[in-house]
Amino acid sequence: xxxxxxxxxxxxxxxxxxxxxxxxxxxxxxxxxxxxxxxxxxxxxxxxxxxxxxxxxxxxxxxxxxxxxxxxxxxxxxxxxxxxxxxxxxxxxxxxxxxxxxxxxxxxxxxxxxxxxxxxxxxxxxxxxxxxxxxxxxxxxxxxxxxxxxxxxxxxxxxxxxxxxxxxxxxxxxxxxxxxxxxxxxxxxxxxxxxxxxxxxxxxxxxxxxxxxxxxxxxxxxxxxxxxxxxxxxxxxxxxxxxxxxxxxxxxxxxxxxxxxxxxxxxxxxxxxxxxxxxxxxxxxxxxxxxxxxxxxxxxxxxxxxxxx
Length: 309
What we know:
By secondary structure, the chain is an alpha/beta fold. The protein has helices at about 90-95, 100-105, 145-160, 175-185, 220-225, 260-275, 295-305, and strands at about 20-25, 35, 40, 50-60, 60-70, 80-85, 110-115, 115-120, 130, 170-175, 195, 250-255, 280-285.
């Protein structure tokens, strides 16, 4: 596949786009066009079809990503960003989610970036160091290095593949689900929809402050069981957006997850609904801290129903 000229571009001013920053489309006709994003980076994504490794220099740091471009794509294809969990890899989330099948069957460009090593602790990792996404307290897309990476990837993907800015989707598991949530909250004017596995909203001081597990297939049934948590504090990862576009969310969690409590997904589901989001919540009775089999395949029809207008 040869590189395509850019058809559309992205904008980010003070963390999110406003309606005035979109180029009007009379009668909703024609492609969505957004003003240029001033994010600074070096490098480009590969133009060849198939699976490749890419590197962009963002905020002075080389950042890696797995890129998969199907052999058959339309002129302006959808884009799916995958975010792996703590100490995991882009290759793992790409394989375990069956994202290649989605890409090949639906002509979707898939990018799975790699998080960076941390030698300090945070709310999600109070007892360990390792590779993870930065989700709090730095939530400014102009300074958070992982949000800067996402911005750079969006611009680079547009340049390389002319991706459709109305069809950009996110999928994450565990710490990657927390980060997908942060991306959807801070860059919500450009995200069509997103999917979270074993993530949620934490208002405890630390993720480990809530250890609830239970049995059941709904938040209502879990909330009536012994040990249900009741934290109250700062919203992590980052505050849920209450203005501007609210990207639809698909949330799933195993009821017996003893690493990230299903309480957090139930808390997020309720918070998103109260803030006016469309939200689909699936509690998997008895499942633990695992991504659903072929998660990308399972959730793609739901994601693809949504697009920016």
